[in-house]
C-alpha cells in the first residue's frame, strides 16, 4: 500500500502515525480511550484539533501500556485477596462443623456410658455413708497411710466378688451375733416347701428355669405382687430390678421356705 504525502495533516509527521484511523490497531484504540478518561475534556478537544498533537498521540503508548499493566496487576491482587478471604471463611466453617460434630459424638458416648453403668443400691448407699464419715484424702493434714499386709490378689477382686464376700460375712455375723460365745444346740433343719437352686448362672424354681434378663412376678404374703427383671443370679441369691429403677435381692433360701414365690410374667 502506498501512502499519499499530499495530505496536509500527514505532512511532516512520523511514518508510524500515517496509518488511517479506520486501520489503527486495537491497542491504539484502547490507549486513546484510556487517555480520554485521564485527560480533561477541554484539553482533549484542544489536543484533537491540533494536527501535530493528534498525530503524536501514539508516542505515549509505552506509558499507557505500563499503566494498564499496573492496573491489571492491581486487579489480580484484589481478586487473590478476595479469593483467599473466601477460602479462609470456608475453612473456618468447615473446622467449626468438624469440632462441633466431634464434641457431640463425645457427649453422646459419655451419656451412653453413664446410662450403662450398673451400680447396686446397697453399694451406692455404703459409698455415700463412707464419704460422709471419712475425710478428704487429698487434704494436707492427712494421716499416715495404713500399710495393708496380705495377699496381692485382694486388690485384684472385682466389685461383684467383693459384694458376694461382704454378703457372706454379714450372714455369718448375723448368725453368730455380736457377743455370742456359747455354742447353741443344733437347730433342726426346716423342710423346704419348694425346690429352688442355682446352676451355672440359671435359677431353677418349682420345675421352671429362670435366666438373667427375664421378667418375673414376685409374690409375698400380705403384699401385692410386683414385676421385676432378673439382673444377676449368684450361688445363694438373686438380684432383680424393679420398674422404678431400684434394685433388691432375694435369697434362694427364702424361695425354698415359701416366703417369696416367683413366676414368669
Automatic annotation (TrEMBL):
Residues 1-17 have a biased composition (Low complexity). One of its GO terms (biological process) is regulation of gene expression. It comes from the Eukaryota. Keywords: Nucleus, Repressor, Transcription, Transcription regulation. It holds the Pfam family Sds3. Its main location: nucleus. Residues 1-25 are annotated as: Disordered. It is found in: Nucleus. GO terms for cellular component: nucleoplasm. The keyword GTP-binding does not apply. PANTHER family: BREAST CANCER METASTASIS-SUPPRESSOR 1. This is Breast cancer metastasis-suppressor 1-like protein isoform X2. The lineage of its organism: Eukaryota, Metazoa, Chordata, Craniata, Vertebrata.
Amino acid at each position: 500500500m502506498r501512502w499519499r504525502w499530499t495530505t496536509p495533516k500527514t505532512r511532516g509527521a512520523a511514518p508510524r502515525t500515517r496509518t488511517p484511523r479506520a486501520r489503527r490497531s486495537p491497542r491504539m484504540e484502547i490507549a486513546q480511550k484510556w487517555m480520554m478518561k485521564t485527560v480533561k475534556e477541554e484539553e482533549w478537544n484542544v489536543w484533537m484539533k491540533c494536527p501535530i498533537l493528534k498525530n503524536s498521540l501514539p508516542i505515549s503508548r509505552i506509558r499507557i501500556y505500563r499503566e494498564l499493566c499496573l492496573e491489571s496487576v492491581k486487579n489480580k491482587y484484589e481478586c487473590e485477596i478476595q479469593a483467599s478471604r473466601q477460602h479462609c471463611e470456608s475453612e473456618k466453617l468447615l473446622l467449626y462443623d468438624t469440632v462441633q460434630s466431634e464434641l457431640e459424638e463425645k457427649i453422646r458416648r459419655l451419656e451412653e456410658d453413664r446410662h450403662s453403668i450398673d451400680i447396686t443400691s446397697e453399694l451406692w448407699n455404703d459409698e455415700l455413708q463412707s464419704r460422709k464419715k471419712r475425710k478428704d484424702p487429698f487434704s494436707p493434714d492427712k494421716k499416715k497411710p495404713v500399710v495393708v499386709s496380705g495377699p496381692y490378689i485382694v486388690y485384684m477382686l472385682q466389685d461383684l466378688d467383693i459384694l458376694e464376700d461382704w454378703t457372706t460375712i454379714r450372714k455369718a455375723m448375723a448368725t453368730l451375733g455380736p457377743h455370742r460365745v456359747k455354742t447353741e444346740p443344733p437347730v433342726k433343719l426346716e423342710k423346704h416347701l419348694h425346690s429352688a437352686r442355682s446352676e451355672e448362672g440359671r435359677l431353677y424354681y418349682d420345675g421352671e428355669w429362670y435366666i438373667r434378663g427375664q421378667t418375673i412376678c414376685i409374690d409375698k404374703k400380705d403384699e401385692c405382687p410386683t414385676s421385676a427383671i432378673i439382673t444377676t443370679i449368684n450361688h445363694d441369691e438373686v438380684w432383680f430390678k424393679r420398674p422404678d429403677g431400684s434394685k433388691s435381692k432375694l435369697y434362694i433360701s427364702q424361695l425354698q421356705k415359701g416366703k417369696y414365690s416367683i413366676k414368669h410374667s
